[in-house]
Every structure is written in C-alpha cells, then in structure tokens.
Amino acid sequence: MKTREQRDLFPGALEMMILKTLKRQPLHGYALVQQIKRTSNDLLQIEEGSLYPALQRLLKEELVKAEWGISSTNRRVRTYKLTAKGAKHLENEVSRFEKMLEGITRVLAPGES
Fold first, then answer.
1. What proportions of the chain, in percent to the nearest 5, are helix, strand and coil?
2. Which end of the chain, N or C, is less surrounded by CB atoms within 10 Å?
3. Interatomic CA distance for residues 73 and 82, integer angstroms
C-alpha cells in the first residue's frame, strides 16, 4: 500500500508534465522519466505502469506522435514528440492548473479562516 507521500498525482498532472517535458525536446520513455525526475529534484518518480498508458492516451488524442529510432546505447526506442495540437492543449491545461492553484493557495493562506 502506498504511503501518503507516494499517492498518485491529481488527474491530468502526469500528462501535463509529459507534454511540458516533450515541448523542450523529443524523448523516449526512459529518458522522459529521467528528465521529469531530474527537473523535479527527485521529488517525482514516474512508474512505467503509469507512463506508458499516459503516452498511449496522448498518442490516441494526437497530442504527441512517436517514431522508432536507435538510442545512444544502440537500442531500438520509440521517441515521442509534441504535436501542434499537444502544444495548444498544454497551454490550456497549464492555464487551468494555474487558476486552480491560485484558488487553493487563497484557501490555504494563513489568517484566512
């Protein structure tokens, strides 16, 4: 059973982080996980069991596209790239998230009980 700190992210958070990471550069799955982990200063660790279903949803919605290639270690990998539709979706989702975060911050503000 997961501890409180290991709970899943809120719905849509993983997809938003994947899209944002792919906006910087196309990556294959393992590199994507490592980049999210590194960018979050090791606070976020994405499991393969969450990553690949999320990538499949993003592919199905045409928010990302994938191409087969060869990694730096000479292995066959599927590299994911953000689409124009994905970039627009990311912009909308980040805006919605920022509004939600602002509301939560206001509710949690000290002295506002």
1. 55, 15, 30
2. N
3. 23
